[in-house]
Write the structure tokens for this entry.
Amino acid sequence: MIGVIFGVIVPYIAVAIFVAGVIYRIINWASSAVPLKVPTTGGQQKSFPFIKRTIYDRFDSPYTKWETAGRMLLEIFFFRSLLKNTRYYLDRTSQKDARWLWLFGIMFHYSLLLVLIRHSRFFLEPVPSFVETLSNIEAFKGVFIPSVYISGLVIVVALFLLWLRRIFLSRERTLSLPSDHFVLILLLAITISGNIMRYFIKADLYEVKELLTNLMIFNIGKAIEVANNIEPIFYIHFGLACFLLAYFPFSKLMHAGGVLFTPTRNMPNDNRARRHVNPWDPADVPLLSKGITVAGMTFKSKKLDWDTYHEMYADQLEEIEEADFKIVPEEL
Amino acid sequence: MEEAPERLEIRQRFPSWREMLKPVKKFEEGRVSYLSLPKQVNSEFFKMPFGDVERDLDDLKLPENWKEIFLDAMKDTLEKNRAFKVFMDICVRCGACADKCHYYIGTGDPKNMPVGRAELIRSVYRRYFTPAGKIFGELAGARELTEDVLKELYYYAYQCSLCRRCSVFCPYGIDTAEIVWWLRRMLSRVGLNQRFMTISIEASSRTGNHLGLLPGGMYGSIQQGLEELKDITGFDLHTYINKKGADVLFVAPSADYFATPHWYVMLGYLLLFNELEERYGLTITWSTYAGEGGNFGSFHSYEAAQLLNSKLYKEAERLGVSFIIGGECGHMWRDKHQFINTMNQPPKNEEWKRFWENPDLGELAEGLRGIRFDSYASGEHGWIHILEFVAALIEHKKIKVDKSRNDQWIATYHDPCNIARGMGLIEEPRYVLRNVMNNFYDMPEHTIKDKTYCCGAGGGLLADELMDLRMRGVMPRMMAVRHVYKKYGVNILLTPCAIDKAQFPHALEYWKIPVEVGGPMEMVGNALVLTAFGEKPEDRQYDLRGEPLKKEEGE
């Protein structure tokens, strides 16, 4: 029974929620307008040819779409903004580079990537050779028996470090919501159960692979048959992972997709070369002069065009006109 | 003027997450902005919803269905601004931004951490717009919108100077300025506006500048500048105002017409314009209608910013200029660089179009041939920063400068937030300063360029009632100034921002650092040799402050 519920029903539901949820969130973000071009410029703008720009300036204050793409890639793969992190010490009124968060973040995310790549062996037949090679390298195959996958251990360590930050650093403790702790605990539970399964209470991985491949081709009858043969320890790991998938679109974990949608990072700093058009403002007459409507009432500001202005201050403007629009020092 | 306390204590507090969700009820003195009066927000020229009653924080006199209006405004914002929506969703509360905010460093108030500030509105967003918040409530970090929460939103929305320093360090580029700006817009929909900025917005909408100067006043002020320059240089100088057919429109922040030390920068502009006209025939005009570069609307809302900056392109078109030069101002350049050509249609006059087909200054004044703007600008925008312009003039050897005239100064340069992080103008001012003076030193790396600290008074916080907050917010910047003061003996802090120039004299006095404040164009004005008037480098006897350049013998 456990096999049917956690081996067949739950994964289908989880994947469905995950896919639908992520698509919904992305469409939801994409459907929101981008009124202004607001990149945060972290370096020298493109300027006259004699103002030199370093390679960092090109990425931090991108002018072309390639430079912008470079900025995004550096952000995604190297967490470049976190790498700039400093810490302010009140008592010393000085600052130091503080890259611990960057280190923990990199440790976690790259371990996760390696772990996911390794797990692709359960879904793909034949297993791609680079997956094999990568696994062999990180396990120092032949040194330890059985092979120890470094990423699987590092990810646990990194998660603990990230969690300890939230528990022991006062600022981070104040900031952390229950959901922040919850995600870390969930990930810890998944990774620890995975490691237990790998080194202590083993599950039959051939059966697991058969279950997953059958699920993938919707061969449900066969899947149920296999599911019932797998050891319960697998379902702890697998069930939690399914829960994580279903939870993903509704949580802060969506930062994985959101980072691509950040206007302060994904727009080039070329405002002066190319005009950005606001989809909801034709920019012909100021919106306030047309009037804004709140709770059924319209509030309209007078448009001060030149003619109105001239009418209001006619005597003074005419004096300027009489001086032929020229200002000279007064004769004393 | 209200004073900050003699002894400034920074009390750091680290409440629990539950406590963070509860609205603060006791507002610190010196950190709450006054609410607008009807004459500012119910004016013919700037009419905001429900602006017709006088409010204070004890009695907000909210419209009956305020909650509905606020949530509608929020829904509207989520649809109209992707940045706001994405930033509501993707923050992971990693804390990287926390100690990057100068207000947090100065106050120790956890809700002044950029993430804390964003959580104030994010918690409301979760409650009304996400399934998790609707179901799990407080456990999901969500909270009801109550009148206390609204007051708290107002209190903290006006403790942010929109400087974007947090955005540089955020792994997702979450920009608190974006969140706070649109939050202020939502607050304005239920009648909550900050008095200080709306005074200027209303004045600018009515008269063309924040100070409410009438055309004659602006004329007289510039005239006085020319008179002072006559005393200093001995030459009869002139300038143009509202002149049709000029080559260039010049737009400065209105503080330059009156305030000190802005005034010396104004004199610098005038010297440069005269030299360029006499020597090359490039005519530059001021305008009373478009007399304001700074845009306090850009602290308030998209609509208010647009109302104020809509005049500038119109005026350029009416006067028939070829491009626009903007003066020394910080947030003005966020507005002029990133907003103005989206909020308005660029000018369509013939001269403008013709110039931008081949944007070489030689097309306007033969002697300036070779200075081209097309490596980064086009006729779809058309604004050049005065310091970029001067940098190009120096590089192409079109003006003659005598560095030694600035020898009494040992300078450091403060990057205004919006120029550094909203524009990327970082090397040009340094290029200019190195070329017009001999003693120039930068502050420590963590406090300049894209990591520059705010002056603590930007974003509409230059109000007197916020003095405590301002003196706290400026603290990191002042420590950096003190460092170079001790190390190099720096005696002037240069900044191309009008708000900085208003804030720093108070701040330097408060933090007891004996350093003057000025603008780069003042240094340019000092060093500029008026060759077209027959001036020799050694001729000038006084600097723009009226001080003798050479010390008397025997002193």
